[in-house]
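Table 4 source record.
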Amino acid sequence: MLLLKSLLIYIIAGFAEIAGCFAAWLWLKEGRSTWLLVPGLCSLALFALILTRIEAESAGRAYASYGGVYITASLIWMRLVEGRTPDKWELLGAGICLAGAGLILFAPRN
C-alpha cells in the first residue's frame, strides 16, 4: 500500500512540476504570454506541497527518489503534450532511474 501511495504522490507531483516548468518554457523559448507564469507558479507551488506527503525519514531521501519518477514523467509529458516519442535510450534510462528511485526510498535500513 505504501508503494502505491508513494507512486501516486510522485506521479501527481511530477506532472505538477513539469506543467509549471513548461509554462516558463513556453514563455521564454516560444514567446508565449507572460500570463502563463501565473498558472505555472501555482503548479510549482502545488508540486512542493504534494511532495511533502511522501513518507520518508528525510526530505533529501524523498527528493532523491523523486528524481527517477520526474525523469519518467518528463518522457510521458514529451509524448503526450509535445507529441515526440521517446527513443529506446530514453526509455532505458528512465527504467534505470526508476529502479534507483525505488532502491533509495524502499531499501531496508536499520
